[in-house]
Write a structure and sequence with these properties.
6 helices; alpha+beta; globular
Length: 185
Amino acid sequence: MPKKKALGFGYIPEESKHHFLLVTPKSPKEDVAVYERFVWDDAEEQRTDILEENLKVTLDRHKWNIIKEPLTTAFNSRLKEKDVIIGKYKNGHVPVERLLGKEMVLLMWAIEDSDPQLIPMALKNWMGLSREERWWLFTMANAVTGHADDKRGWRKAIRYALTENPIDGEDKQQGSILEMLYKNT
């Protein structure tokens, strides 16, 4: 059976218009940005719904470069399971399927205001969560603090839970992360 063709990371416009759009400027000094969109333009350079109110997160290039490869590996593994063509992050516009986009934004929220030295811990904790837990955490934070500039409540709790909750060996402590989130909101 041939692999399903997709844009970016698993995004198939014929199946759903809802997706996330990662915008990576050509200049390595500029931040990356992620927008949640419900429209797809039939052009490589997207223009519709790239508005301030749809902006979910901005991340400096150094932090993005640290998480880019682990995200690529995790997402491509999932795309292979579904027989979908794998993706690659590149400069410009990269669409991300809505559920993968939620997971990507959750990780970016966790590290946006953290010390870069805490990013490996955030990645371990993020990987220790099931995809359903990631979707739920995104949904909870997005309902109240989903805009890029709204960094309080759930967003702050996610940062603390993923960057300051150590994992010992194989003990993934998922329950501990969720308990910590409830305590910090």
